[in-house]
Amino acid sequence: MLLSEIARTSAQVAAEPGRKAKVNALAGALRSAEPEEAPVVVAYLSGELPQRQIGVGYAALRDLPPAASEPSLTVAEVHAAFGEIGAVSGPGSVARRRELLHAVFARATRAEQEFLVRLLSGDLRQGALDGVMTDAVATAAGAPLAEVRRAVMLRGALGPVAA
């Protein structure tokens, strides 16, 4: 799944005032995701990183490379890159994280860059809280909401249930 689909869905959800429209937009994105991508898509559209923290702060997000003209970046590539960035430690780690981050951002379109900056800075405010996302997972799967809620309770997280 291309990251551009996630960025577009995020913008659509942010622009929608109604809960049902948000749920339908999110469910559409979840239906497009491969099962192995679903936990990452749920996390990103909920404004969270599966890795929690990757050691990237506001300073690293200030000086970004020019945006790509065409979308080519996939959710899986971004997830893998963020995992690699988060694993960097030791002497020279700040420079290495910045280098890896710039490689991701150089492949991202303007809309994708804006989405990633908001995601990494914890500023992805679009109204897709847990309740809305749970409804979207149920809608995408065609499953009763009560069953999805129970599965989330038993699994402890929504991402694995979405897969």
UniProtKB/TrEMBL annotation:
Origin superkingdom: Bacteria
Keywords for the protein's UniProt record, in alphabetical order: Ligase
Domain spans labelled DNA ligase ATP-dependent N-terminal: 65-138
Ligase in keyword set: yes
InterPro entries linked: DNA_ligase_ATP-dep_N (IPR012308), DNA_ligase_N_sf (IPR036599)
Top-tier EC class: ligase
UniProt record, GO biological process: DNA recombination; DNA repair
Residue ranges crossing the lipid bilayer per the database entry: none
One Pfam family from the record: DNA_ligase_A_N
GO molecular function ontology, one term from the record: DNA ligase (ATP) activity
Listed EC numbers: 6.5.1.1
Coiled-coil segments: none
Protein name as annotated: ATP-dependent DNA ligase
Organism encoding this protein: Actinomadura logoneensis
